Amino acid sequence: QALKVRADVVVAKDGTGQFTTVTEAVASAPENIKKRYVIYVKKGVYEEIVNIGKRKDNITIVGDGRDLTILTGSLSGNHTSHTATLGVDGNGFTAQDIGIQNTAGAEKGQAVALRISGDRSVVYRCRVEAFQDTLYAHSGRQFYRECYITGTVDFICGEAAAVFQQCQIEARKPMKGQSNMITAQSRSYKTQNSGFTIYKCNITATPDLTPVKGTVKTFLGRPWGPYSTVVVMKSFIDDLIDPAGWAP
């Protein structure tokens, strides 16, 4: 059930809004705005790469549901941050009730669905889906609640100070020879305000991984920086996780 919000602009593929693409709606938002700017995206599959620039603060994107309003892209490559289907550099970003995909596939390597580099970001009731580097929590303070996040290698990664609360976190079947790493946190110095907290979440396997989970190593994470910090607390951890817990 989507929350009722007063939208500044409406995006609809069928032409019943002001815009037919999310990119156009983001471009319409004033720069350096102090109040919230709400973009309502009606149900549909939007094949586009959306970038919210540094001067685009306080933008909210709200959809009709994470399985109904879907942003999808398929970029991949070594420049991880440039592959995101939705990339956010502005502060105060909020996403609610949308799905964000990168469909490049496991064989394409780094292929981000959502990258957030702005501060004070909130992602609520969203679906974030890819394989490697699904969610790039790059920097700033970030909060995720009641989200579904799935991937294979380092699929929640970055240097942000991020809290994940009541989320469904699912490892999926990786390429042959790969191990699943749920997190790759990259805190780089001792006094940095950086780390992931996974609180009251469920950590499980997708249906394609479940039959072979005994032959695929899945870890809670690996260090991506000298002071990498991840805390998993009061969460359900299913038997897909290697007894070691963490990769070296």
Automatic annotation (TrEMBL):
The record's subcellular location field reads: Secreted, Cell wall
Domain Pectinesterase catalytic span(s) in chain numbering: 8-247
SUPFAM superfamilies, alphabetized:
Pectin lyase-like (SSF51126)
**Documented EC number(s):** 3.1.1.11
- Give the main EC class: hydrolase
Q: Which Gene3D superfamilies match?
A: Single-stranded right-handed beta-helix, Pectin lyase-like
Q: Which UniProt keywords apply?
A: Aspartyl esterase, Cell wall, Cell wall biogenesis/degradation, Hydrolase, Secreted
Give the GO molecular function terms.
pectinesterase activity
Is this entry keyworded Secreted? yes
- Read off the Pfam families from this record: Pectinesterase
Q: What is this protein called?
A: pectinesterase
